[in-house]
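Consider the tokenized backbone below.
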């Protein structure tokens, strides 16, 4: 299955996780939760359940609705505890052996784990583990955790897990099932999200609150940075295996990745996006514009905020076709050029003869923005201005977001003025890093200590990039990616 050539100019979240403990329909609830988290990964999904004696698993490529639409599948996933995973693969094909949750029979019993994020010392650890005799069954970084637990000298399951976590670096939110308990844990900096919910006497773990809403669960709180949650028959228990560290939650969750109806770290994602748009209007107004047009769908909340703050009419000047997705068409240059019209079309009646402000959440390679501007001009716009509801994305993410290599990021190799010329707009502006921080209710970043992970804008990475800085590891990564693409 090829990735759509018409949607290659956005960053992509890698995964979403969901877990349930203490419910007779645990697997059905997990399947519903994964539906709500579909935006976090569309390559594959999986569920592992436990009924007090045995583990059961089902994994499938494609969307949740495809893999779990058969009621017999859910019926076979028996038990009061279950965890699930949506996957977005960053390179090559989605291989069945890489679909999570991963499961292993260890010396203490069965262990299943699902992971949102990315480990930055995977290849270093993998080489060490293989030397010690470990036999890997997948190419995912998540499997490293299982092997570290298997080789741990600790006795208790939680101690083995903590022992493994102290050896890994990177960003992660994990949900795991060991039979008599479901476990959730966030990395010491809390870069990737995880929340705790409740449904009657049952407890829920999820990447976002929108997944709690779909099953009627109540949001309890965010799992805190560096916190390990253990859910068993006696309730919820909390451990702090990493001590106290300052949270560095991924600020891009607010800009694009999370669903707008979710709450993260105490903030409504939708309200934050509107406020980013308002900050953008205050920083880079376009007073002579006739209307504000969002680049659908991710640009809509920021465009509303921009229009309200700038007192400019808001119109859906671009209509999106939601049924493009994958394509059987070979992505030739000619088809790529036409592809934007398969996904977006100008609403000519509202654009013709107008001075238009286009609002989008971000620019990655710039190719889609370029085509959209051309399309709006062809629809008769008198002027086209672009406003971006994030600072320039100039650095790659290594913490669980699929980003192009740094040299392929438009903002890494071009100034704002050069981007303006490249895209073909009359004016161009991004929200500042301080404006972004104000929008999420934080003190301005300026030169002070960052409260979020904003490395994709600033290049300041909170967790050491071991594999990236190690030349031999980078060679192994390149070789592994080539094998994945052939796979």
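A designed sequence for it:
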């Amino acid at each position: 299955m090829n990735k759509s050539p018409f949607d290659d100019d956005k960053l992509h979240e890698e995964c979403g996780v969901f877990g349930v403990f203490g419910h007779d329909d645990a697997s059905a609830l997990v399947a519903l939760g994964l539906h709500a988290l579909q935006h976090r990964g569309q390559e594959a999904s999986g569920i592992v359940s436990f009924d007090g004696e045995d583990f059961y698993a089902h994994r499938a490529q494609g969307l949740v609705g495809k893999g779990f639409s058969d009621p017999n599948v859910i019926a076979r996933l028996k038990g009061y505890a279950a965890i699930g995973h949506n996957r977005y693969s960053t390179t090559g094909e989605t291989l069945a052996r890489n679909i999570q949750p991963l499961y292993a029979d260890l010396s203490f019993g069965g262990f299943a784990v699902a992971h949102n994020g990315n480990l930055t010392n995977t290849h270093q650890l993998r080489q060490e583990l293989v030397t010690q005799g470990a036999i890997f069954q997948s190419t995912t970084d998540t499997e490293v955790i299982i092997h570290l637990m298997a080789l741990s000298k600790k006795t208790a399951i939680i101690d083995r897990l903590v022992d493994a976590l102290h050896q890994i670096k990177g960003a992660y939110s994990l949900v795991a099932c060991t039979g008599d308990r479901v476990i959730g844990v966030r990395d010491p900096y809390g870069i990737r999200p995880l929340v705790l919910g409740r449904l009657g006497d049952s407890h829920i773990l999820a990447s976002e609150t929108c997944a709690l809403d779909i099953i009627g669960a109540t949001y309890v709180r965010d799992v805190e940075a560096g916190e390990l949650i253990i859910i068993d028959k006696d309730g919820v228990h909390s451990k702090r295996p990493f001590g106290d560290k300052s949270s560095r939650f991924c600020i891009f969750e607010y800009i694009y990745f999370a669903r707008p109806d979710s709450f993260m770290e105490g903030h409504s994602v939708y309200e934050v996006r509107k406020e980013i748009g308002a900050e953008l209007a205050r920083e880079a107004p376009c007073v002579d514009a006739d209307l504000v047009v969002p680049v659908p769908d991710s640009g809509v909340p920021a465009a509303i905020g921009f229009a309200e703050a700038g007192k400019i009419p808001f119109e859906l000047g671009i209509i999106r076709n939601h049924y493009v997705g994958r394509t059987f068409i070979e992505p030739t240059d000619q088809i790529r050029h036409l592809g934007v019209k398969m996904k977006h079309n100008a609403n000519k009646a509202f654009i013709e003869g107008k001075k238009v402000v286009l609002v989008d959440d971000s620019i990655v390679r710039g190719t889609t923005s370029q085509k959209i501007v051309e399309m709006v001009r062809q629809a008769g716009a008198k002027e086209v201005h672009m406003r971006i509801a994030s600072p320039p994305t100039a650095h790659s993410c290594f913490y669980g977001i699929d980003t192009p290599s740094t040299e392929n990021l438009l903002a890494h190799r071009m100034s704002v003025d050069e981007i303006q010329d490249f895209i073909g707009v009359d004016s161009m502006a991004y929200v500042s890093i301080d404006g972004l921080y104000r929008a999420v209710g934080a003190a301005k970043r300026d030169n002070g200590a960052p409260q979020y992970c904003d490395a994709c804008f600033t290049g300041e990475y909170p967790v050491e990039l071991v594999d990236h800085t190690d030349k031999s590891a980078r060679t192994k990564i390149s070789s592994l990616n080539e094998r994945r693409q052939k796979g």
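Confidence is low (pLDDT under 50) at residues 1-7, 326-330, 471-487.
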